[in-house]
Design brief:
The chain is mainly alpha-helical and 396 residues long. The protein folds into two domains: 1-41, no CATH class; 43-267 and 280-314, no CATH class. 74% of the residues lie in helices and 0% in strands. The chain has 17 helices and no strands. Helix 3 packs parallel to helix 8. The radius of gyration is 26 Å and the shape is globular. The chain starts with a helix and ends with a helix. The model is unreliable at 199-211, 265-274 and 383-396 (pLDDT under 50).
Length: 396
């Protein structure tokens, strides 16, 4: 209490959260002092309990902060929320729309009964839970590539990211889409890492019947779940379709490099090199083809509702009018007053051929501006971190 009454050092104004900050600093020092010893004695503490606690704490903080979010942020990423909120029945949800897929309205429909049909409150819960899924997927990816301690640091950095918190509060399809994409990548990475880490124990089984190995069976299950997550991303936004060819390519390349490395470890005799190379090619083709088929099957099963709706109502399985958004950026300068100057069904070829130099110069400016913005943000983060004693009290 004495510290609370005294003026805090480093600042020239009262600091209401001074006691909380001091306690958190002491907890951090205790964690640095005894954390490594506890992690060695109880490995599950570092690999399971702490990540779960971090994600749960983040979710609780977001839900508390979301109680103050009572109106749409317009103009901004919540401009389109009215389109989702007005789809109240299954007939409205399962209708073809060239701009919005049915995944996000479906999520809102599932969550509405928890809030007496209030779409806005349901969307706040969906955004927060999607953020928790995103953090979990982030940790799975980091854990597949790094030891437990660095993976935990990656999770903490993601949990403290202002962008993750911001989109965890926004209502809209942004965070659910990001969560599905991250979960697809995490499951795929985890499947590849699981096969590599357990291959020495299953090598005797995989030589003659690679498809019967329990390691490969669990790997196929994870790849199938990754396909489901990717298909759910497409259900939410058209852009999720890119995960289908990308995932197939990654799985095929992973199978190729995995079997090449396994072959080098198993075959040291030069006399058997040619026969083993033939066996390697056959095994790789078999495993890669099955893995890619499993991924594609999961992806198509998840996106099947959208494909059926589009086919029945428009005759086009991949019905989309997203090309108008490109026209809007290239020719309308993102001026909403000019939105109706072009039809909704304008095609990408027409947009490009109308003025190719203008189209490609706009594309170049967008990507150049993106990279410049990232460089400025990186410099801003470094400058902010160097002045941490000054800005930290204001953030708290």
């Amino acid at each position: 209490m004495l510290l609370y009454r005294l003026q805090p050092p480093l600042t020239h104004y009262p600091w209401r959260s001074y006691l909380v900050t001091v306690n958190l600093a002491l907890v951090g020092l205790l964690a640095l002092r005894y954390g490594p010893r506890l992690a060695l004695r109880f490995p599950v503490l570092l690999s399971v309990l702490l990540p779960t606690t971090i994600v749960a704490g983040w979710l609780a903080a977001i839900l508390v902060s979301a109680s103050g979010h009572v109106t749409l942020a317009r103009p901004g990423v919540e401009n389109d929320f009215r389109v989702f909120a007005t789809r109240e029945t299954l007939q409205q949800i399962f209708s073809a729309d060239g701009f919005y897929n049915l995944g996000y309205p479906w999520l809102l429909w599932l969550a509405r009964p928890l809030f007496d049909g209030n779409a806005f409150l349901a969307a706040r819960l969906v955004a927060a839970l999607s953020g928790a899924v995103l953090l979990t997927a982030t940790y799975l990816i980091a854990r597949s590539l790094l030891p437990p301690a660095p993976a935990l640091v990656a999770l903490v950095v993601a949990a403290l990211s202002t962008m993750v918190a911001q989109y965890g509060l926004y209502v809209g399809s942004d965070m659910p889409f990001a969560a599905c994409v991250a979960l697809c990548l995490a499951l795929m990475t985890f499947a590849i890492d699981r096969t590599k880490s357990q291959e020495p124990r299953a090598s005797g089984q995989a030589t003659s019947k690679p498809g019967k190995s329990p390691v490969l069976s669990s790997r196929f299950a994870l790849i199938f779940l990754a396909g489901l997550a990717g298909g759910c991303a497409f259900l939410i936004r058209h852009l999720g379709l890119i995960l289908l060819p990308w995932g197939v390519l990654v799985i095929a390349l992973a199978a190729l490099f995995h079997h090449e490395g396994h072959e080098k470890q198993k075959d040291q005799a030069a006399k058997a090199l040619r026969s083993r190379s033939v066996e390697l090619a056959s095994t790789w083709r078999s495993t890669a083809s099955r893995a890619t088929l499993v991924y594609a099957l999961g992806f198509v099963l998840a996106m099947l509702p959208q494909l059926m709706v589009n086919t029945v109502q428009t005759g086009q399985p991949l019905y989309s009018q997203q090309a108008k958004n490109i026209w809007f950026a290239v020719y309308a300068g993102t001026d909403w007053a000019r939105w109706n100057e072009a039809p909704n069904d304008i095609g990408l070829a027409e947009i490009v051929l109308r003025d190719p130099p203008r189209f490609f110069s706009n594309w170049y400016r967008n990507y150049g501006g993106l990279f410049r913005q990232r460089r400025r943000r990186h410099k801003g983060v470094r400058a902010r971190d160097s002045a941490a004693p000054a800005w930290l009290p204001r953030q708290l």
